[in-house]
Each structure stands twice: as C-alpha cells, then as structure tokens.
C-alpha cells in the first residue's frame, strides 16, 4: 500500500542493490555478473522489495532516533562536563550500535531474505536458486567481511541455513513459468 515502485539500474562496479522507502529500488550493474541468471537477479530484487514491504528503512530510522535520544538523556544524567558527555556519547554510540542496531539490521536482512524467497517463487523463479546466488556473493566478496557482530548482514553461512529452513514454504508458491 502506498508504494510507487520504481526500478533503476545504476552504472557502477559496486556489487550492491538497495531499496528506499516507498519502493524505489536500485540495482548496480556490478552485481549483474554475480546474479548470473534471471533467478539470481530475482533473488536480489525480491530481497530489496521485501525491505520496502516490511518497512525496514522506517524501522531503522526510528531505532536510531530512539538510541540517540536515550544517549543524550543518559549522557546529561551521568556526566557533568561537556568533555565527559562527549566521551559518554561515543562509548554509548558504539555500545548501542553493536548491541542493538546491528543485530536488528541482521534480523531485517534475514527477514528480507525469507520474504524475498517467497516473492521470487510467486513470480515464477525457482527459490532454490537463491542459495546459489548467495554462494556467488560470498565468493565475490573475497572474504572481505567484518566479523558478524560488527556486520549489518548475516554471514553467507547463516543466510544459507535460513534459506534452507524456509525453502519448503517458498516452494509452495513456486509455479515454473514456461520459457518462450
């Protein structure tokens, strides 16, 4: 409801895609060699569409505003000096990021993977292809990932496990489209 879907292809070597609130999806050309197939691209697009449907951007914004407000209140209550408050804000910010915001971001990514799996199946793409896409994404990253607790995304291994866990549900919606 209220989505003005817009899909854009951006000329860039970045291996990335994103979705803004309201259904504005961007796919970078750098991800196309990794998607490799229509089903791989459907995995990426289903994932990004899921972020919009689940309103993840609004959720992240609200969480960040709450964390910032709580940090300001706590800093004012705990410290008496401006310098002390600045140090408190930095420590509070790092702690909040690692303990609240990043885990929620990983939860949202997992939810987008699960919903995206169903969306691609409903569109006639084999959801089993999603696992192959994430394996290619892992290879494309050349192991250049931060430790999971510092990452916004679940590890590829966790992604595979979660996709396998939800595969039977997605397959209920899969009706192959006849190729022309």
Describe the structure.
By secondary structure, the protein is mostly helical. It has helices spanning 32-35, 38-53, 56-78, 82-122, 129-140, 156-171; strands at residues 6-10, 17-20, 24-28. The chain has one domain (6-171). Helix 2 (38-53) packs across helix 5. Mean pLDDT is 77; it is low at 91-103 and 146-150.
Please describe the structure with a list of short key phrases separated by commas or semicolons.
180 residues; globular
Radius of gyration, in Å, reads: 19 Å
Q: Secondary-structure element order, as H and E?
A: EEEHHHHHH
Strand tally is 3
Distance between the termini: 33 Å
Helix content: 55-70%
Q: Could you give the order of strands across the largest sheet?
A: 1-3-2
Oligomer status: single chain
Rounded mean pLDDT is 77
Overall 3D form: globular
Structural class: mainly alpha
Q: How many helical stretches? A: 6
Main sheet summary: 3 strands, mixed
Strand content: 5-15%
Detail the poorly predicted runs: 91-103, 146-150
Number of domains: 1
Per-chain topology:
Layout (H helix, E strand, L loop, with lengths): L5 E5 L6 E4 L3 E5 L3 H4 L2 H16 L2 H23 L3 H41 L6 H12 L15 H16 L9
Parallel strand pairs: 1-3
Antiparallel strand pairs: 2-3
Helix pairs in contact: 2-4, 2-5, 3-4, 4-6, 5-6
């Amino acid at each position: 409801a209220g989505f003005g879907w817009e899909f854009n292809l951006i000329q860039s070597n970045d291996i990335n895609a994103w979705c803004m609130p309201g259904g504005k999806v961007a796919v970078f050309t750098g991800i196309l060699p990794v998607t490799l197939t229509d089903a791989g691209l459907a995995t990426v697009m289903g994932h990004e569409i899921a972020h919009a449907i689940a309103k993840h951007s609004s959720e992240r914004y609200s969480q960040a505003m709450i964390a910032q407000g709580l940090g300001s209140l706590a800093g004012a209550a705990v410290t008496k000096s401006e310098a002390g408050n600045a140090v408190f804000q930095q420590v509070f910010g790092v702690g909040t990021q690692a303990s609240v915001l990043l885990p929620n971001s990983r939860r949202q990514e997992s939810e987008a993977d699960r919903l995206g799996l169903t969306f691609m199946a409903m569109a006639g793409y084999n959801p089993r292809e999603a696992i192959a896409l994430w394996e290619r994404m892992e290879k494309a990253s050349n192991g250049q990932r931060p430790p999971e607790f510092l990452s916004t995304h679940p590890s590829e291994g966790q992604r595979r496990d979660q996709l396998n866990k939800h595969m039977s549900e997605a397959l209920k919606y899969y009706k192959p489209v006849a190729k022309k």
